[in-house]
Specification:
Rossmann fold; five-stranded parallel beta sheet; 46% helix
Length: 432
């Protein structure tokens, strides 16, 4: 853990240096580019090669796709309590995200022409769901539910398997619950490559969604343009802003929850109004860490990616949050400070308010998707929503009367831009 005070002369530089640690190193960029090029050239053979190399799974192309019967069998094996949890989370996710469903409209512009917008689901989407040691069952719900609400005709899901080609029952059961039938036991950069370029076995998609590790995130960045991508959600981040009203044990539990992902590239921020708050939280972190099953990996994140900052005011805390643009932001502060922070902070992926709203509620069940931007990309990306699974098309209709009003404007722009044919294409409709 590193401790900074905003009052020090080097604070801005030190904060920027810490945040740069989330940037992708050159070796990852080059490794990803090499794998993507191989998948693009060799297709299924390359996908199988990297599944064996990185996941230890020896899969022939005919085993890439998970049979529908395997999804149903996993659902039957899942304990009743887990099935109920999936249903409960799904209900909240549907209720929240239906509110964001875009609606077509039309009206008249000032020239009298008919204008409007229509929205159509993206034809074929690819959803990446992290698996392996931590199968993110919740990510199935946080992505596929939105695609279903949008009405996407084809939804293909990719998730890595273990060495024997198996995928966690909870993950498969969630897919079965949502009615997803096209599932591939492929993860990593090779999955992103297969989605982007297509192979003999795997049809290419139009847009890629979902979180992943630094390699997956970089792969999405590199294939953007060949396909669309939702955002760049990489290794997890959390920032907790805490004042005297915060419970140190709650804060510690929330910091550990994000560090628990354990890739070593997570970023954990504690922004406190006094150094004694930091000391109290750290004592709780050390106490709670010994009880975690993934304590060793969690400790690695705390050693490399934990920054504590002491601020003098809520305004300073807001400025830091806007710079970092954290994936998850928790406000464990007095209500008067909440009002200031909510108004001033404009770059957080998701904001959790109060001592009884840990990030895990947002991760699993509150309603908004937990697929959120990381690595300071929250400055220009937002969290996943239904609109991301849809295309917007505008439409325009002039008639013989309204085209005359439009002609005057077009003629002026055509002259300014020296585009005679543009002007003629409108003026010819006003003659005779």
């Amino acid at each position: 853990m590193r401790l900074l005070h905003t009052s020090t002369k080097t604070f801005d530089r030190d904060l920027a240096e810490f945040c740069r640690g989330a940037e992708v190193p050159r070796e990852i960029t080059e490794a990803v580019a090499s794998i993507l090029a191989d998948v693009r050239q060799r297709g299924d053979a390359a996908v199988a090669h990297y599944a064996a190399k990185f996941d230890g799974a020896r899969l022939s192309p005919r085993r890439f796709r998970v049979p529908v019967a395997e999804l149903a069998a996993a659902a039957k094996r899942l304990p009743a309590a887990d099935r109920q949890a999936i249903r409960a989370a799904h209900a909240n996710i549907v209720a929240f995200n239906r509110e964001g469903l875009a609606k077509a409209w039309q009206g008249k512009n000032p020239q009298g022409a008919t204008v409007g917008e229509k929205f159509d689901p993206i034809r074929r989407v690819g959803l990446y769901v992290p698996g392996g040691q931590v199968p993110l069952v919740s990510t199935v719900l946080m992505t596929a539910t939105l695609a279903k609400i949008a009405g996407c005709p084809e939804i293909a899901v990719f998730t890595p398997s273990d060495k024997r080609g198996r995928i966690a029952d909870g993950l498969l059961a969630a897919l079965h619950f949502l009615g997803i039938k096209e599932v591939y036991r492929i993860g990593g950069v090779q999955a992103i490559g297969a989605m982007a370029y297509g192979t003999k076995t795997i049809p290419a998609v139009d847009k890629v969604f979902g979180p992943g590790n630094a390699y997956v995130c970089e792969a999405k960045r590199q294939v953007f343009g060949t396909v669309g991508v939702d955002s760049l959600p990489g290794p997890s981040e959390v920032m907790v802003i805490a004042d005297q009203s915060a419970r140190a044990d709650f804060v510690a539990a929330d910091l550990l929850a994000q560090a628990e992902h354990g890739s070593g590239r997570e970023k954990i921020y504690l922004v406190a109004t006094a150094e004694k708050i930091v000391r109290a939280v750290m004592a709780e972190v050390e106490k709670q860490l010994t009880t975690l099953t993934r304590s060793e990996k969690t400790q690695r994140v705390l050693d490399a990616g934990f920054l504590a900052i002491v601020v003098k005011s809520a305004t300073e805390a807001a400025a830091i949050a806007n710079y970092v643009a954290p994936e998850h932001l928790e406000l464990l502060v007095r209500q008067s400070s909440v009002d200031v922070l909510i108004k001033r902070i404009t770059t957080a992926g998701a904001i959790m308010i109060g001592n009884h709203t840990p990030t895990a509620l947002g991760d699993f069940t509150a309603g908004p998707s937990h697929v959120l931007p990381t690595g300071r990309t929250g400055r220009f990306f937002s969290g996943l929503r239904v609109a991301d699974f849809m295309r917007r098309t505008s439409f325009v209709r002039y008639d013989s009367t309204t085209v005359k009003a439009g002609n005057r404007v077009v003629a002026a722009f055509a002259a300014m831009e020296q585009l005679d044919a543009h002007g003629r294409s409108v003026s010819i409709r006003t003659q005779g």
